[in-house]
Design goal:
By secondary structure, the protein is of the alpha/beta class. The chain has one domain: NADH:ubiquinone oxidoreductase Nqo5 subunit (Beta Polymerase, domain 2). Helices cover 19% and strands 31% of the residues. The chain has a 5-stranded mixed β-sheet, covered by helices on one side. The protein has a two-stranded parallel ribbon with strand order 6-7. The radius of gyration is 16 Å and the shape is globular.
């Protein structure tokens, strides 16, 4: 745990414990999910769930590392509706599979975008700089 500022605390949690810890913050401590962040680090994909405890003005950020050879983590969307869209965005842009998520369909990229290409990965720019994506005339 690292207290970054008087009302900002970062807590590193193993991937398998994120679901239970997030549920504790939401249900027991009455925190709300503000946003989540996905970051491609050299040693894995980092996910940070940012929770706010509004009465005290305190933020708790749960950080976890998902190994690049096993890009899976349990979705929080079943008990935390606010996680639904941001998990979809992180899935689409970084390729992390949120296990149990009700609807991981693309949200930001064109419907003709290849599903195995994730534009926020470190290796994306070099490997796919010549990619051409067809324009779609259909609405989602």
């Amino acid at each position: 745990m690292k207290i970054h500022a008087p009302r900002r605390t970062y807590i590193r949690v193993p991937r398998d414990d994120v679901y239970g810890f997030a549920k504790f913050l939401f249900e027991e401590k009455e925190c709300r999910l503000s946003i989540a962040t996905g970051i491609d680090k050299r040693d894995g994909m980092e996910i940070i769930y940012h929770f706010s405890h509004d009465p005290s003005g305190t933020y708790y950020s749960i950080k976890t590392l998902v190994p690049k050879d096993d890009l899976k983590i349990k979705s929080l969307a079943d008990f935390l509706p606010a996680a639904n869209w941001i998990e979809r965005e992180i899935h689409e842009l970084l390729g992390i599979d949120f296990v149990g998520h009700p609807n991981l369909i693309p949200l930001l990229t064109a419907e003709t975008w290849p599903g195995d290409l994730h534009p926020l990965r470190r290796d994306y720019a070099d490997e796919h700089k010549d990619l051409k994506v067809e324009k779609s005339t259909e609405e989602r």
